[in-house]
Structure formats: structure tokens, C-alpha cells
Design a protein that fits this description.
By secondary structure, the chain is of the alpha/beta class. Helices cover 41% and strands 28% of the residues. Strands 3-2-1-4-5-6 form a 6-stranded mixed sheet, with helices on both faces. The two termini are 27 Å apart. The mean pLDDT is 84.
């Protein structure tokens, strides 16, 4: 029996609706995927970051993590997860050090996608993360959950 496909999903916000779940299913080639979710503990403001306020971002990330895991389970996808470093690329690197993955998926909101390119985050992710990497850009705010707008492939 082949080893399960190991998928690491970096979820910066939420994971809601059938399309993001379908993206995880597709990446896992159907059944037998080991899905691990990491939610970066992103500070709401740079001022709070400067003040060293890490409790609230961790609590908010934990809430997002629980919601993402619940959403996956409701859709028949077993997953584990943890809160990661505020820097999403560092969060992915840390997670890969703990357990390797066959593929990394980064879920990001459409409104935040630009910063991945403007701040060089996607470039850094491509250079520092070994497995194939995909960024799944989500449109949020619809009653029926999030919609996949585009998928950036790297590697």
C-alpha cells in the first residue's frame, strides 16, 4: 500500500465552504491524505507586534485553527493542526522540520494576496520550502463560503 500523501496547509484566515476543502481533497489525491493545518499567529497590527502582544494573536489563531479543523471534519477530511509562527513562511518551515510533507498549500484571502508578492513572501516561500508549493487565493464574504479565485503554482 502506498504511503499517504502528506499535505501541509498554511491557513492565514479561515477555511470555509466547499471550494477550499475541494482544493485540499484534490491535493491529497482523494483518500489517504495526511492533512496538517498550520495557522500563523498573525498580529492584527504592527503596533501590537512592536509591543510584543503575542497572547491575543495566538488565541485568535487558535480559534481560526479550530474552525478550519471543524470545517474539514464536517467535509470528511481528517486533519491535525497547530498554531504557528506569525510569519507564514517561517510557520511552514517550522512545520516541515517537525514532519516532512509532499506538498505545501498556502490559503490566502484575495485582499491579502498582493502582500505576498509586494513583500517578497511568495518568493521567499519558493526559495526556502522544499516540497511543491501552491498558493490558493480565496474570495471571502459570500453567503456560501469562500471561493477559490486562483492557484499560483511554484516548483
Amino acid at each position: 500500500m502506498p504511503a499517504p500523501h502528506r499535505l501541509l496547509a498554511i491557513v492565514t484566515d479561515s477555511l470555509d465552504g466547499p471550494e477550499p476543502i475541494e482544493e485540499i481533497r484534490r491535493a491529497g489525491n482523494g483518500a489517504g491524505a495526511e492533512v496538517r493545518i498550520v495557522v500563523p499567529a498573525v498580529e492584527a497590527t504592527s503596533f501590537r507586534h512592536t509591543m510584543g502582544d503575542i497572547d491575543e494573536p495566538k488565541q485568535e489563531a487558535d480559534t481560526r485553527l479550530r474552525a478550519a479543523l471543524a470545517s474539514l471534519r464536517r467535509n470528511g477530511v481528517a486533519a491535525t493542526g497547530e498554531v504557528g509562527d506569525p510569519d507564514p513562511v517561517q510557520a511552514a518551515q517550522d512545520a516541515l522540520l517537525e514532519a516532512p510533507a509532499d506538498e505545501v498549500l498556502i490559503f490566502e484571502r484575495e485582499s491579502e494576496q498582493a502582500r505576498w508578492f509586494e513583500e517578497g513572501l511568495f518568493e521567499r516561500a519558493k526559495e526556502s520550502l522544499e516540497p511543491p508549493l501552491r498558493m490558493v487565493v480565496l474570495h471571502t464574504g459570500d453567503a456560501d463560503g469562500e471561493h477559490v479565485v486562483t492557484v499560483e503554482e511554484a516548483g
